[in-house]
Amino acid sequence: MNLILFGPPAAGKGTQAKKLVAERGFVQLSTGDMLRAARSSGSELGLKVSSIMDSGGLVSDEIVIELIKEQLELNSGAAGFIFDGFPRTVPQAEALDKLLETLNSKVDHVIRLKVDDEALMQRIVKRFEEEGRTDDNPESFRKRLDAYNAQTAPLLPIYAEQGKLTEVDGMQQIDVVAREIDKVLGA
């Protein structure tokens, strides 16, 4: 089973993904984690990723798809895959569909954690004040939130039209959100 979790930063995607990994044996494919791992691996692909990242460039969709393919093949016996941070754009979604098709697979479910942007902003401000995490400063978070909303919005109607999109109220308690996701996945 292949699952895409959508939601802006701080929506709870990581928390829910960890529960699915622990409880269902899914493999979480986080593009950020994969890029960092490739970079430190010393492989040919890792060297390519490293030079792009070191120069401040964005890693191409082709490289990200190659990394995803590698992980799908390495974990072929997994109960399912959670795509985290990918796809973010329509071309990435199309590339993912093509890759999965070559592996006789597909995206089965797309779950969007619906959250209130202003409530998220309040959560981030509080976390920034309490923990001082530099990536959680309100200004950079607003940019990340705006980018998410601009890039992801075009994907939602596509997955809805395919009958794969389910929206879950991400403002609920963690366990309630997890139960809603379980219902979607047939638990």
TrEMBL record:
Residues 30-59 are annotated as: NMP. Monomer. Its EC number is 2.7.4.3. Its main location: cytoplasm. This is Adenylate kinase. ATP binds at residues 10-15, 127, 172. It comes from Hirschia baltica (strain ATCC 49814 / DSM 5838 / IFAM 1418). InterPro entries: Adenylat/UMP-CMP_kin (IPR000850), Adenylat_kinase_CS (IPR033690), P-loop_NTPase (IPR027417). Consists of three domains, a large central CORE domain and two small peripheral domains, NMPbind and LID, which undergo movements during catalysis. The LID domain closes over the site of phosphoryl transfer upon ATP binding. Assembling and dissambling the active center during each catalytic cycle provides an effective means to prevent ATP hydrolysis.
